[in-house]
């Protein structure tokens, strides 16, 4: 496509004085025809020359997968492969359902120059999206027009939960700074079931003393135990109507998947087996627990594009299905919601058979707006009504929590920014206390 420049329109405007002079000097206006014709031919000729140039190399460099809700880096490499300096404008086409930082650039490239252009893409939702090509305008010879071209470099952009948080977890774990993510890990002496090594006594639990080694060495020696590995962690993900509610602009299911991913990553690092049960009114997918990074990747591929549906979850069918297929004692983590005592009672009854064999967590996403409304000063009648509704809703959720606890089910409820840390902290405590 050809887009005339300001220079071209200025030259067109210069033809106006020729017409005005022709009004005074008869015959002078005849110069206007060859002038405009020459200007038009020059425009067309410059376009024909410019459109045949094959001088640009454009390559987009991205991560293999994109994390939802965070800024993902994108780099555009532009190389001038001609022997002429080139002025151009470039606009990349990011995924439609994402916020992109400044992705339009103006360049002046010397012959053979390579330029790296950087911007970020922040996807709003999980799923499948794509880059829609790159649009380039370069200045044609004589500077009369911009030649616009679309580079057909479409590229898939699979959008996953926040996998970038996993790298942060690993880094902080290596440095012993998990507390910066809100993860609290208590060091409990004398616990563990698998023998690791012997060491000198240092104010340890007397039950860990190895008396035979102590007698040989003549000083107190204790056994080091490490936390047992190869235990089961099963994530049960409700993709029914309870997870459709939005909190801070995202559905509860999105927060649940982010937290489940962090839990599975932590469990994989601890050497445990990880499984998945996904359900609403029917069981959608079951992946039996296994160890290893490949298992986490397989589960992530399964859940990264899943969406909640407006149907009532069938807890009895889902947990009955799990009970019939996995007998070994494990930690079963159920991501759902129970907003009142009736819903919690239904969930507790359905989990009764699993509770006899497994350790159960029910994970719920709390809405920070509730806390904000409860703290709001009452200035007008609508504030009073809103505060009363918040108190009513808060009381109902507390009743649900009591119902779950009285049924022997641990309930973990936290606001979105704290949910992953609270869940991982609870998991690490289970490991340290050998509760499974």
Describe the structure in your own words.
- With 436 residues, the chain is an alpha+beta fold.
- It has three domains: 1-160, Immunoglobulin-like (Sandwich); 164-226, no CATH class; 232-432, 3-Layer(aba) Sandwich (Rossmann fold).
- The protein contains twelve helices and 22 strands.
- The strands form six sheets. A six-stranded mixed beta sheet has the order 19-18-15-20-21-22, sandwiched between helices. Strands 1-11-10-5-7 form a five-stranded antiparallel beta sheet.
- Strand 20 (330-335), helix 9 and strand 21 (359-365) form a beta-alpha-beta unit.
- Helix 6 packs antiparallel against helix 7, helix 9 runs parallel beside helix 11 and helix 10 (368-374) crosses helix 11 (381-406).
- The longest helix has 26 residues, at 381-406.
Count of distinct structural domains: 3
| Strand proportion | 25-35%
**Compute the gyration radius: what is it?**
33 Å
Tally of strands: 22
CATH level 1 class label of the largest domain: Alpha Beta
Into which percent range does the helicity of residues fall?
Answer: 25-40%
CATH topology of the largest domain: Rossmann fold
Characterize the biggest β-sheet: 6 strands, mixed
CATH superfamily of the largest domain: von Willebrand factor, type A domain
Q: Which structural class do you get from the secondary structure elements?
A: alpha+beta
**What is the typical, i.e. mean, pLDDT?**
85
Low-pLDDT ranges: 186-191
Described by the principal axes of the CA atoms, the overall outline is elongated
Terminal Cα span: 67 Å
- The side-by-side strand order for the widest beta sheet comes to 19-18-15-20-21-22
């Amino acid at each position: 496509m050809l887009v005339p420049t300001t220079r071209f329109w200025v030259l067109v405007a210069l033809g106006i004085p020729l017409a005005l002079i022709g009004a005074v000097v008869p015959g002078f206006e005849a110069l206007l025809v060859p002038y405009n014709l020459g200007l038009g031919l020059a425009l067309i000729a410059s376009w024909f020359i410019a459109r045949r140039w094959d001088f640009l190399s454009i390559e987009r460099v991205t991560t293999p997968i994109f994390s939802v809700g965070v800024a993902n880096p994108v780099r555009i490499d532009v190389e001038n492969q001609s022997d002429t300096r080139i002025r151009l404008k470039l606009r990349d086409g990011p995924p439609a359902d994402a916020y992109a930082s400044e992705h339009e650039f103006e360049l002046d490239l010397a012959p053979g120059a390579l330029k790296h252009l950087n911007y970020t893409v922040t996807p709003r939702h999980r799923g499948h999206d794509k880059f829609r090509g790159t649009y380039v305008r370069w200045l044609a010879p004589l500077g009369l027009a911009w030649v616009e071209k679309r580079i057909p470099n479409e590229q898939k952009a699979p959008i996953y939960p926040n996998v970038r948080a996993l790298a942060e977890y690993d880094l902080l774990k290596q440095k012993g700074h998990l507390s910066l993510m809100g993860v609290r890990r208590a060091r409990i002496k004398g616990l563990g079931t698998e023998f690791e090594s012997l060491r000198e006594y240092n104010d340890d639990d007397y039950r860990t003393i190895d008396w035979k080694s102590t007698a040989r060495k003549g000083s107190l020696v204790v056994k080091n135990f490490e936390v047992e590995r190869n235990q089961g962690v099963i994530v049960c993900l409700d993709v029914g109507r309870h997870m459709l509610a939005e909190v801070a602009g995202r559905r509860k299911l999105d927060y649940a998947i982010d937290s489940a991913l962090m839990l599975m990553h932590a469990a994989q690092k601890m050497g445990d087996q990880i499984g998945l049960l996904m359900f609403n009114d029917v069981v959608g997918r079951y992946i039996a627990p296994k160890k290893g990074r490949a298992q986490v990747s397989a589960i992530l591929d399964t859940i990264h594009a899943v969406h909640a549906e407006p149907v009532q979850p069938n807890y009895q069918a889902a947990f009955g299905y799990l009970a019939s297929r996995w007998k070994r004692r494990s930690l079963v983590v159920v991501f759902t919601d129970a907003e009142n005592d009736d819903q919690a009672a239904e969930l507790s009854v359905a989990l009764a058979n699993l509770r006899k064999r497994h350790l159960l967590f029910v994970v719920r996403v709390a809405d920070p707006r509730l806390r904000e409304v409860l703290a709001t000063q009452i200035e007008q009648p609508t504030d009073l009504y809103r505060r009363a509704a918040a108190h009513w809703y808060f009381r109902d959720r507390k009743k649900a929590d009591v119902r779950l606890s009285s049924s022997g089910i641990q309930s973990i409820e936290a606001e979105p920014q704290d949910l992953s840390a609270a869940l991982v902290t609870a998991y690490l405590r289970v490991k340290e206390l050998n509760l499974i």
